[in-house]
Design a protein that fits this description.
Blueprint lengths: L19 H18 L6 H18 L1 H10 L5 H19 L4 H13 L5 H9 L6 H20 L5 H9 L20 H15 L11 H11 L6 H11 L7 E4 L4 E6 L7 E6 L5 E9 L7 E5 L11 H4 L7
Antiparallel strand pairs: 1-2, 1-5, 2-3, 3-4
Helix pairs in contact: 1-2, 2-3, 2-4, 2-5, 3-4, 4-5, 4-9, 4-11, 5-8, 7-8, 8-9, 9-10
Organism: Silvimonas iriomotensis
Protein name: HD-GYP domain-containing protein
Length: 323
């Protein structure tokens, strides 16, 4: 008999103190264990909720580091990593909306489980360099319905959670799937998950998708949701992440390069410069106000440019330990 849904007023018990980066990476491990290894062992909803709380704690402690993990920790299986990445973005947008904490928990839960109906297919596609076959496309179009039914069998009865999983690929103009819902038929929260899903997918390196430079990924995502119905959502998404979100690798007008440390405003974030104009490490990292002309951002670089060259504690301190 499926486990009962936990009460909506359950008290949060935060995990033991860890760095923010370690909280996020550990959440990936826990989600893998839950979804791919032991989904039917114990109370599924409570175990998933524990992961939600862990991610929310990470975002509360240092949202900049939580976002940077998306760009700079792309190891391991794609499906689980992508779900956690999407959940981080969703939680930060929900926080900006001042969403009811229980609804916010439901929406983040949906982001973590949105692709339960196609876990194996996701891993296949992450390694596949050819277009989807007709059978793969059919499975993809059915996965929201399959995922919702899997969650129901595991004891999930939260309607907001279930609806968001079912609707996260629907589009306001009726071009989505599986039901081609339109306009007000869609939940706002499901459209939010769909937007975050697309954005995080564009940032991922894989055999069939080269990772997009961050600003390109953001604006391509917003254009894909460019209907009048989603204008508010698009603005909210951009306001939360910024044009240059934390973790983005950039070059400055003075030739230095470094990492966006903190989203201050859309076009002028705080950047920690790490390399000089000859691409040599600076003696000491230095924070640059990119609102000043000499430190303006002139170019976006691939995150892979920093692999093996940077200890992220230089940018964010102990919160980034483990990244």
């Amino acid at each position: 008999m499926p486990a009962a849904q936990p009460a909506r007023d359950t008290v949060t018990t935060p995990p033991a103190a860890r760095s923010v980066a370690s909280l996020v990476l550990n959440a990936r491990f826990k989600l893998f264990d839950l979804l791919e290894r032991h989904p039917d062992q114990g109370d599924f909803t409570q175990r998933l909720t524990d992961i939600v709380w862990q991610l929310q704690l990470a975002c509360e402690q240092d949202a900049d580091v939580a976002l940077a993990v998306i760009l700079h920790a792309q190891e391991g299986g794609y499906g689980i990593r992508h779900s956690v990445d999407t959940a981080i973005v969703v939680d930060l947008v929900c926080e900006r909306l001042d969403m009811n904490p229980l609804d916010r928990q439901s929406v983040v839960s949906a982001a973590l489980t949105m692709n339960m109906g196609m876990m194996a297919l996701q891993e296949t596609l992450a390694q596949q360099s050819t277009p989807l076959s007709s059978a793969q496309r059919e499975e993809m179009h059915r996965h929201p319905m399959i995922g919702r039914e899997m969650l129901r069998r595991l004891g999930v009865s939260d309607q907001l959670w279930l609806d968001c999983v079912l609707q996260h690929h629907e589009m306001p103009d009726g071009s989505g799937y599986p039901a081609r819902l339109e306009g007000e038929e869609l939940r706002f929260e499901a459209r939010l998950i769909g937007l975050a899903d697309r954005y995080c997918a564009m940032l991922t390196q894989s055999a069939w998708r080269s990772g997009s430079v961050v600003d390109s990924a953001l604006f391509r995502t917003l254009r894909a949701h460019g209907s009048a119905a989603d204008a508010k959502l698009g603005r909210l998404f951009g306001d939360t992440l910024g044009l240059f979100p934390p973790g983005a690798v950039v070059r400055l007008a003075n030739g230095e390069s470094g990492v966006v440390k903190h989203y201050a405003n859309e076009s002028a974030p705080l950047v920690t410069a790490l390399f000089d104009d000859a691409d040599m490490p600076l003696l000491e990292p230095v924070d640059r106000d990119t609102g000043k002309p000499q430190f303006a951002i002139t170019d976006m670089l691939e995150p892979a440019a920093l692999v093996g060259r940077v200890q992220f504690e230089q940018v964010w301190g102990a919160a980034a330990m483990g990244l």
